[in-house]
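Q: What does the assembled structure look like for these inputs?
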Amino acid sequence: MKYLAALCLLFSAAAANAARVVSLMPSYTEIIFALGAGKDLVGVSNFCDYPPEAAKIQKTGDYLRPNVEKIYSLKPDLVFAGDWASGTTAGQLSRLGVKVALLPEEKSVADIYRTIRLIAARLDRREEGEKLVKKLKASLPPPPEGKPVRVYIEADSGGWTAGGDSFLSDAVAKAGGANVFGKEKRGYFQADWEDVLLMDPQAVILLSGTKKDFVSRPMAKDMAAVRSGLIITGLDRDAFSRPGPRLFGEIKKLSGLLHAEK
Amino acid sequence: MRKNRFWFIPAALAAAFLFSLAAGPAGFSPEIIWGLRLPRTLAALVVGAGLGLAGALFQGVLKNPLADPYIMGTSAGATAAAVLCFLAGVPRTSPLFFLAVFTGAFGATFLAYWLARLTGRLSDAALVLAGVAVSAFLTALVMLSLSVARERALSLFYFVLGGLYAPRSGVLAASALLAALSGAAALARWRALDAMALGEESAYHLGIDPRRERLFFFVLGCASTSAAVALGGTIGFVGLMTPHIVRLLSGPSSRTLVPASALGGAALLCAADAAGRTLFSPSEVPAGVVMALAGAPFFMWLLWKSSRGRA
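A:
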């Protein structure tokens, strides 16, 4: 009987220690797993599919308008949400007594370190956070020499691209490229095809669509990137478009592709 | 015999209300029912009632079975005005916001009516065509605002899509008041509305000034549409479907048709919203999408029926 009581105490203590965490962004989910806190996750957004274990966690809807009731029913101690949720979702959750950590949007690679540190601090894993940041910094390719390669990023068909206010633009710079729309002081926008042609990029990163389709667009054949054949389709779309740990591997890959021929 | 079946409508409303309060992944937690589901359910009731009422008024006063705030451009006018208010930074709870939304709704409705009237006799099809033309232009204005607005584009997009995600209590109260006042004013003049439903010429012979009554009921229909749009964005087909359905239960007189349409619209949208929340949970389908899925085939059926009636 005594043993049983002791055992119960032990379990309840362990249960009290383990946090119940919900992540509303795929990148937060990946960071939480990288910090070794994946088992604390009790809910993730519908888009959280990496690492594979994340796919098995309960889903809480899309991240623009998550299912507040579902999140509540998971009884989380802490919910990680992006800035966009600051209005309705976060308000509803805090009125229901759920703690929400709102994380600012990442607009550069350095902002990703900031997000990692913020998440690590809230999960009481500062040391793991510092270790992860250090590891990621070390994994970046050495700063490139010479003039950076002019790069056009197409995140989605229809000319959706990244401006200077995005971590994608910075990721390209870290790989030794220069985003042709880097001077645009905004995040993501739809670029006019004529503008793309005028910029005459030396390399194109396609995150969706095929090389064949791109090359057959009107007047594409005179573009520097098409002439040199530097149309990059080999990047992992999810890894490259989420501000998480996997982005760094893609930066390295991109750096290799951009400077292979020189 | 028909009047006896009126109780169907409050019964359906009660069923939809309870379904909406009960449906959700968190079970029967009082906190959730009180804090999340009740505000949302009330919003669905107000928006549905406003649209159902507007549909009954437009269909009655124009003697047109296809009239509806969505098809006539009223909703598009209200939405365009609301989006412009967002961009101008007018808060959603201010009287100015409601005034602007009403002005948009009324302007669009009158423009559509005037265009339809240009052909001489007001035909059902002409009104639909004019409504499509007015809606198309106003929707283009909304799309333009969406592509220009950078930061708030997403919340605007969801407003335009139509839905009841997280309604705000201030807007809810103001919309409920506006819809209730429109309903009461319409009910007070049910005889005039009945006379108008016989056609303008008959109404004139019954001693009613058709022009004045038309204006009066247009104002009320636009006011209740504005209440609905301010709260729930653009949601179509509630105003079109509800009067046709409830007429079978309430009979054709405006005295019962007007309250029946308000109650029926509330029940319809409440059920649509609850269904949208549960169907693909945890993702939700906006109530506007659910209504369009159900309402567009209904519209086709109405068109088919009215073409056969004429042949």
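Residues 4-17 of chain A have pLDDT under 50 and may be disordered.
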